[in-house]
Amino acid sequence: MVSTVSRSDLPEQSPGIKKPVQETLLTPRFYITDFDAVAQMDLSGHEAELEAVVAELRADYNRHHFVRNEEFQQDWEKIDGETRHAFIDFLERSCTSEFSGFLLFKELSRKLKNRQPLLSEAFHLLARDEARHAGFLNKAMADFGLTLDLGYLTKNRTYTFFPPEWVIYTVYLSEKIGYWRYILVYRHLEQHPEHRFYPLFRYFESWCQDENRHGDFFKALLRSQPKLWNCWKARLWARFFLLTVFATHTLTVLERSTFYDSIGIDPQEYNKAVIQNTNETSKRAFPSVLDTDHPEFFPRLEKCAIANQKLAEISSQSRPKFIQTLQKLPWIAVIIWQLLRLYFLPAIDAEASRPVIH
Ligand SMILES: [Fe+2]
Ligand SMILES: [Fe+2]
């Protein structure tokens, strides 16, 4: 959370192949987990709900959706300068994050094959969708003369180990926040088509329904494991992951305001809308959520974003490393302090309103 993102200046490994952006705590991550523990999960009593969400995935509503139409057959050199730079950056982060999901789901599907057939099938179907999403984004990058070398990314990324419980919380959240990110951009561009400078945005409406279904599968999985929602530890973890995801979102969106400006979106308003909606949606799965209406909530998140910009400025200066570290300390302290204050704001008990939430 306290690390900074260096903007890529679009370095290339070989002509047309884009070198991935420098890895930091804010870049999309690649995960592995304890596959044996997932294989041993007790799903008894929850098979019907899991079967229902898997049936939705099997239906494959977007089978014919990710086909590039003739609108893509244009010369995209007309998108230039800052807009081009910011858009390529957006495409790369989105593609990396979709691809990261694909790798995790594919591995889960493979490792569970003979031990948890229903989960193995579900992960296979999730991997199918994420591969489509990543491939579609990579083709969009090709319109700008670049592609991400996904094979290189697979081999050379560092993988972070998360226990299954953390994977379930974070992937649930990343699917639901993904849904809100795509649908809010889509709705905005429906109202302001003059800002739709590239046809990819037209695909977001059905695309985000894939993310919504993925989130629903993780919700069913989470609710099938009582220890993930019916104890005080679960309440603390749920709030921790909500805050982590929301803080990362705020830092990333406000640091990349150029992209949102280029499609006529106010980054601050967009960040608020994405977080408020994701938090509200999370009530259906999590035992406890954050109070995003609290008057301190967004000002404190935005203070973290300002401190993050300062860290980025310090990193970009050519001073000795130890001087930079000294200069960074107060800003790192600002971020930690604000996050602690946010974490201990009064939370909302989602279980209390469970009977009326469907
Ligand atoms: Fe996706
Ligand atoms: Fe997804």
From TrEMBL:
Any Gene Ontology biological process: photosynthesis
Alphabetically ordered keywords of this record: Chlorophyll biosynthesis, Iron, Metal-binding, NADP, Oxidoreductase, Photosynthesis
EC id: 1.14.13.81
UniProt-recorded Gene Ontology molecular function terms: iron ion binding; magnesium-protoporphyrin IX monomethyl ester (oxidative) cyclase activity
Residue span, Rubrerythrin diiron-binding domain: 89-222
Transmembrane segment boundaries: none
Domain of life: Bacteria
Keyword NADP: yes
Co-factor(s): Fe cation
Catalytic activity: Mg-protoporphyrin IX 13-monomethyl ester + 3 NADPH + 3 O2 + 2 H(+) = 3,8-divinyl protochlorophyllide a + 3 NADP(+) + 5 H2O
Coiled coil: none
InterPro entries to which the protein is assigned, alphabetical: AcsF, Ferritin-like_SF, Rr_diiron-bd_dom
Pathway involvement of the protein, from the record: Porphyrin-containing compound metabolism; chlorophyll biosynthesis (light-independent)
Family per similarity comment: Belongs to the AcsF family.
Stated role: Catalyzes the formation of the isocyclic ring in chlorophyll biosynthesis. Mediates the cyclase reaction, which results in the formation of divinylprotochlorophyllide (Pchlide) characteristic of all chlorophylls from magnesium-protoporphyrin IX 13-monomethyl ester (MgPMME).
Protein name: Magnesium-protoporphyrin IX monomethyl ester [oxidative] cyclase
Organism expressing this protein natively: Leptolyngbya boryana NIES-2135
Gene name tied to this protein: acsF
